[in-house]
Design brief:
single chain, 146 residues, mainly alpha, Arc Repressor Mutant, subunit A, 2 domains, three-stranded antiparallel beta sheet, 6 helices, 10% strand
Length: 146
């Protein structure tokens, strides 16, 4: 998904927004891609160590976790590379939009398959069929209100 330089810049940008734990960075990237992509801890934690060794971030122990905050040198580095970070973020926004659309389509297909599977079995009681209709109607109404 990322080349190492791009990921390093994105991670530094996330830390520049607010101090974060490694796990927070992984979850922020995962959320951006609707769960379709999540960097491995094996790529994030060594990168955080490299950023710290380069004096771009500083870490503090926070219970069992280590929290990373950007340094002044890190802010200067981000500013010097702002155009590149903006370009990468624009690409990420475009890719994540495609992933979101794909993920939504997959959910619709999965729902359809679930409904048809239950109907093919033919073992829904009248109460279960009424409940299923209510669930589908509620989902449809909720989507209409988006």
């Amino acid at each position: 998904m990322f080349d190492p330089g791009a990921l390093r810049l994105v991670v530094l940008g996330l830390i520049g927004e607010e101090p974060r734990h490694g796990y927070d960075i992984i979850k922020a990237l995962e959320a951006r891609f609707q769960g379709a992509y999540s960097p491995s801890p094996g790529s994030i934690y060594p990168m955080l160590q490299m950023l710290e060794e380069a004096d771009l971030v500083i870490s503090t122990q926070d219970g069992n976790k280590r929290s990373y905050a950007i340094t002044e040198a890190g802010r200067v580095y981000l500013e010097d590379n702002r155009a590149e970070l903006d370009r990468i973020n624009a690409q990420l926004d475009e890719a994540s939009a495609d992933i979101r659309q794909s993920a939504l389509a997959q959910e619709v297909m999965a729902l359809r398959m679930t409904v048809f599977t239950r109907l093919r079995r033919g073992n829904l009681s009248a109460e279960q069929a009424d409940e299923a209709r209510k669930i589908l109607r509620t989902a449809r109404d909720s989507l209409d209100r988006l």
